[in-house]
Specification:
The protein is an alpha/beta fold and 332 residues long. The protein has 13 helices and 13 strands.
Length: 332
């Protein structure tokens, strides 16, 4: 009898341990399922600050949103705000993003990037429509990677090829006017480089800087009086005022070569341009790598759109009697 009791006790204990083991396995599976569900339900909050509304920047923002929406579906929420050309407003917008602790900030244009960089060194910041990050962020040591919490994409098309475009289309030109906003660091950077290329080719260059849209008409008028051709870089203030520029330069018969397609479409004859949608989309892919795949933003180099194209404005070219080579594509 005593032996039977011992065997019964051992059998009971074995059943208890077996049940416990089964219960542990069930709990572990439930925990894994709960973790997977939590990851699937993660919603990423993205703050978008855009300096000003115009076609190029709008396309970059759309490309960014499209990329993340395709990759994350309903798991991403955008807080999109436009500073209407006011750099101070960029700072206000970004500070709001920091206060609400967004997961990432998308800064579209130089002033937006500068405001974001000043506001936080912790939240990942991806810039786009930035010509030169070293100039924009006043970096002393720059090797193509910003470091810290900042990376992004550039809208820079090769400046030497832009200068060559001026020489190709207007071989008789002797005086080139450089029209740009002096308040935009990246515009100054482009002007300095294009000026150097043209002067090396024996062309006389004259700078016509304007401080903001209020004095643009006066400066553009002065540029038309002394220039055979005018060069306008990827300049946000100019891009938002192409109608003003066109109303002055086209009647004066002075052609414009632009740094990007939006400006060329509004007032230029030709451009060597990248796709702003493409660089925005590429920035969205970078955001996914950071948010979901755990990529280290401090090691991510600035990326570029490699698909650079020669384009022309058929209407203005025809009106000014300018012959366009066959390898140029008409802006649609």
């Amino acid at each position: 009898m005593k032996m039977k009791k011992i065997l019964s006790l051992l059998l009971a204990l074995t059943m208890v341990f077996a049940l416990a083991a089964c219960g542990g396995t069930t709990d572990s599976t439930d925990a894994d399922d709960a973790t997977d569900a939590a990851e699937a339900e993660t919603t990423y909050s993205i703050g978008i600050v855009q300096l000003v509304q115009h076609d190029a920047l709008d396309l970059a923002t759309q490309g960014f949103k499209d990329a993340l929406t395709e990759l994350l579906g309903d798991s991403v929420v955008f807080n999109e705000q436009n500073a209407s050309g006011d750099s101070a407003q960029c700072a206000t917008i970004v500070n709001g993003f920091v206060s609400s602790n967004v997961d990432l900030i998308f800064a579209n244009a130089t002033a937006a990037l500068q405001a974001a960089a000043a506001a936080t060194d912790e939240i990942p910041i991806l810039g786009t429509s930035i010509t030169d990050y070293q100039t924009a962020l006043e970096l002393d040591d720059y090797d193509g990677t910003v470091g810290g919490n900042i990376s992004g994409t550039s809208d820079l098309a090769p400046l030497d090829q832009q200068a060559e475009m001026i020489l190709e289309l207007f071989p008789e030109a002797q005086n080139v006017g450089l029209l740009y906003c002096s308040a935009e660091a990246n515009s100054v950077y482009q002007i300095e480089n294009v000026e150097a290329y043209l002067e090396e080719a024996g062309i006389t260059c004259t700078r016509y800087p304007f401080s903001d849209s209020n004095d643009l008409a006066t400066v553009a008028t002065a540029a038309c009086q002394t220039s055979d051709v005018i060069y306008v870089p990827t300049d946000n203030t100019a891009a938002a005022a192409t109608e003003t520029i066109d109303s002055i330069c086209r009647p004066a018969g002075v052609p414009i070569v632009a740094g990007e397609e939006g400006i060329a479409e509004g007032c230029g004859v030709a451009t060597l341009s990248i796709s702003y949608y493409n660089i925005g989309y590429k920035t969205g892919e970078m955001a996914y790598e950071i948010l979901v795949e755990g990529a280290d933003i401090s090691t991510m180099p600035i990326q570029f759109d490699e698909d650079v194209q020669k384009k022309y404005n058929a209407e203005i070219a025809e009106e000014l009697g300018i012959a366009i080579p066959d390898d140029y594509i008409a802006i649609e």
